[in-house]
Amino acid sequence: MNDACPISSRSPRSPISGETLDRDRLTRLVAEAADSTAALQFDQCDFDGADLSGLDLRRARFTGCSFAEAVFRKTQLAETHWTSCRARQADFEMADLTDARFTACDLNNTGWHRAKLAATHFAEVKLTGAHFHEAQVLGIGFRDSLLAGADLRGMSFRKQTLAQLDLRDADLGGCDFRDAVFEGGSLRDANLKNARFDGADLRSVDLGGLRIAHVSQFFKGAIISHDQAATLIGELGIRVL
């Protein structure tokens, strides 16, 4: 008697390579793959401007694909992997990206309004100007990423290690950085209104543009270096010898 193949077993399938794909073509591919345990794979495909709203693309793999201005409204994207993809101005509103992974992608000016980003991870990505307002972000992770000018209001990074995050000019209003450890990166000129940094280790992050008043207001209980303290005091015209 043959044992049934376990549902977690995912046999490889040939990637779809070099195609320009619209909604109709992708819908057919999803239907064809519905009875398979293998994930769809796309290599160097063009989805620019495509409306992919509501499709079930769970576990799909995208490598070197382009999604400029594509729409993923309410799309099922849990456990997807995105590597070296370009998706400027793509709209992920209310999409489910639980456990998704983005690596070395250009996601500048993307929208993530009310998206599910539980345990979603971004590594070496560009997210300049991205909007995460009201996204569900429990367990979200960023590493070695550009988030300049991004809207991250209300996010919690409590007790996380934040490695090389460029948060220049980002809107961090109401963010929770308590007990977080910053490894490099920048908070230069970021909006920190109502953000919390109790116990945060800021010794290696760029705090340029801050004033003493900002430190007393936003960084109470945070850890900074002697050099950072000297720079802040220098803003008052006081020399530290």
UniProtKB/TrEMBL annotation:
Superkingdom classification of source: Bacteria
Gene3D superfamilies: E3 ubiquitin-protein ligase SopA
Protein name: Pentapeptide repeat protein
Annotated source species: Variovorax paradoxus
